[in-house]
Amino acid sequence: MESVVSSLWDSGALGAVFTAIITFFGQLSALNTQKYTAVLEALQKQQTADIAAHDAAIARTKDDGGTWTRRVMMFAAFAMLGACPILFAFFPDIPVAVETIEQTGGWLWGLIPEKESFGVSYVNGFYLADVWKELMANLVSAYIGAGITRKAFKLGK
Fold this sequence. Notes:
alpha+beta
């Protein structure tokens, strides 16, 4: 076996095999580096496009179509919570129809089904439903949150 290795070494065949193996691994490494560089360039182009699309989406116009809708909703909710109770305080005999829902059943994780019965009750004065309070709280937080978010994106540039 030693004579075979020494004869291959002397003839240069063994060196050629090792050189071919090293060259092969070098080419694989270069190809891998080239692919890695191409991926990084593609990611950089995509990031640039994403930033441009984001900036275009954040840019505000004079009237973006939803501003007045949000403002009308805000003022209507404020009128319902702020103005109507004061206005109706002077007219305590105005009857107001209030829908009532009575839920029964719904035990054992749905094995006994839940039933709802609807009814209408009449009350004198002004009835302020919890839905209006929740709407006002949500509108205020959304309105303020939109302003804070818009300002944060402008500062982040």
